[in-house]
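Dear colleagues,

As part of the handover before I leave the project, I'm documenting each prediction I ran so the next person doesn't have to rerun anything. This entry is a single chain, and its sequence is reproduced below.
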Amino acid sequence: MCGDLCPSGAICFEIDHEGFWYPAVNKEICGGCGICVKRCPIINETINEKARTPAVYAAWIKNDDIRVKSTSGGLYYALAETALKDGAYIAGCVFSNDWKSALHSAGNTYDDLDKIYRSKYFQSDTAGIYGEVKKLLSDGKKILFCGTPCHNAALMEFLGEDYESLIKCDFVCRGINSPKAHQAHVKELEQRYDSEVSFFNFKNKSQGWTRLGTLVKFNNGKTDFKNRYSSAWTRGYIGSNLYMRPSCEHCKFKKIPRVSDISIADFWGLQKDAENMKKGMSLVMINTEKGAAFYEQTLSLIHSEQSTLEIAASGNGCIYNATKFNHKKRSEFFKRIENERFSDLVFDLEGTSRYNVFFYEKLIIFAETLKAWKKWIINTAMKN
């Protein structure tokens, strides 16, 4: 945001050894206006004065195909489709053409929506998006902007006013991972399958919503699928917090009220029937009156039921709590990643091996199968 904001163009971004970029000021052309400091969402701890204690819902899109392809219950897709039908633009995170990086982009077509929906679990390059959003708003366009809470805070500071034609959407963020870690993961997969990636899908639901699957397709027609037990990426992210951005451990935006109009997430902790648990459910928090009015427009596309903030927080601790790191293991990861295979390094730092992971996964599947059989036998016996 500060790069987009600087009137002298004096701010560039340098990439550190962990793959994260940080602002650097060219003092030879800096005009000394201080606007980058005055508008910094971290220094100012930006708040949305129009936000309130949220109204909370459990929801999912009625279109089953979109729901299954989505990360949780397909709520972002429903919000974005509502925006597009109203002639609005949507701005959010998309994969690069080679699937090795991500950036924020804006558009007003279903092709744009197809690129934006579904999660990308590493840092998006937002250079230029704040200026693009402001130009669209100044031209009288409506926009649905989606990003992390800190992205939304940065947009608020950049704009300096609350446009009625802008809907800000964030998500319950656990933390943003290193693009360098994602690139190391892709590099290993492309070497293993001797082909370039043609599709990358985090939180794929081939084995159900709670399995946190990662599906990767390659140009040679081969595919790779790993679930939460066998995926090195998921274990390194969810299990060990090995490659999150350092600032995520000190996040200033995991709190109520939120900075956005609408917040979405997986509704972890909510127990429903087997079909819903397989397809996924969304948590929705409506934070402003503007957000409530927009949510009303989506109701024809979704199933929505009232819930509470207490229930939401019981399964989504990151509404309030920042993720804590094992700094020794995290430091070790970035020391060794240049010279070791991504998955081998993650498993080693977890104190396990690829073979142990394989057998543990099979054991879990066997136990879950036995549980399902037992439930079927009991239900059959009760019916008879």
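The chain has a mean pLDDT of 94. Residues 174 and 318 are 6 Å apart (CA to CA).

All the best with the project,
I.
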